[in-house]
Write a structure and sequence with these properties.
By secondary structure, this protein is α/β, with parallel strands linked by helices. It is built from ten helices and five strands. It has three domains: 31 residues, no CATH class; 55 residues; 158 residues, Nucleotidyltransferase, domain 5 (2-Layer Sandwich), CATH 3.30.420. The protein has a five-stranded mixed sheet, sandwiched between helices. Helix 6 packs parallel to helix 7. It is elongated, with a radius of gyration of 34 Å.
Length: 275
């Protein structure tokens, strides 16, 4: 405007350019609001980088508590100009797994599958329980079925040690991506000994044999009665485990029992039980 007002008045220049005279005089006095806007924008970026899940009002009141007196309308205008309202909400990165062969092994004790299922007992407070299932994918034998109030990675490793003690090591163990299965403790236990084969997230059908075992356990045992305590539940689970392996015929192995299947194919064991 200064370059135009050599032979024109401030009033005329302001009218032509559409600028308020008060704005012109204030800028002549050193008022530069865009510089403060840049400071506010920088602060907004700093806060949202540190607190990625915070929205506008949380950030605005955080700045107010830091002693910044700016009006919320001004801060919101800069917030939108910086496209901070378009930030994607933080999400945990998804676990990616490769598709692996789903066919059951041809040799006994070559591959295991394991999974958890949940139930409850009707004692005081209706306590929730988790049941661990481990099976041989070839013979369909249930290797371990036991209920606990909770199953940590440490408990899981202890159970696997007990199974290996009488069964021997398999070549691989198939499981889903639960926190116990992806834990560092299980990885350390399996390192150099057993391959852990993870199924792809959200596809339980890729561990279909253990899912079928879970369904059979729920249908033939858990749904038949109410259990008053975990010891009573485990007592019934052991009875079911015994019947499942010794007297229940399985259509997938020619209506033999798992024990019978293993006795008939004893020479095809993948690994003998360690002495």
């Amino acid at each position: 405007m200064d370059s135009l007002r050599q032979d024109r008045s401030i009033r005329r220049c302001s009218l032509v350019l559409g600028i308020r005279r008060q704005s012109y005089y204030r800028r002549k006095q050193g008022h530069r609001p865009e510089e403060l806007d840049m400071v506010i924008a920088d602060l907004l970026h700093q806060v949202t980088k540190r607190f990625v899940a915070w929205g506008f009002w949380m950030v605005f009141h955080f700045l107010r508590r830091q002693g910044h007196p700016w009006n919320h309308k001004r801060v919101y205008r800069i917030w939108k100009a910086q496209a901070l309202h378009l930030r994607t909400p933080p999400k945990r990165s998804r676990i990616k797994r490769k598709y692996l062969d789903l066919l059951a092994p041809e040799r006994i004790n070559e591959g295991w599958a394991m999974d958890f299922l949940s139930d409850w007992v009707v004692g005081s407070g209706g306590q929730k329980v988790r049941i661990i299932n481990i099976m041989d994918e070839c013979s369909r034998k249930a290797l371990w079925t036991e209920a606990h109030t909770s199953i940590s990675a440490k408990t899981l490793v202890e159970v696997l040690d007990k199974v290996v003690e009488w069964r021997g090591l398999p070549s691989y163990i198939r499981c889903d991506n639960g926190p116990e299965f992806i834990s560092q403790k299980l990885e350390d236990w399996a390192k150099g000994k057993v391959e852990i084969r993870f199924i792809q997230p959200g596809k339980p059908s890729q561990n279909g044999l253990i899912e079928r075992l879970n369904g059979t356990l729920r249908r033939e045992c858990l749904k038949l009665e109410w259990f008053q305590s975990i010891p009573k539940l485990n007592e019934q689970l052991q009875q079911w485990w015994q019947d499942y392996n010794t007297i229940r015929p399985h259509s997938s192995i020619g209506y033999k029992t798992p024990d019978e299947m293993e006795k008939l194919n004893k020479k095809f064991y993948f690994k003998p039980v360690a002495a």
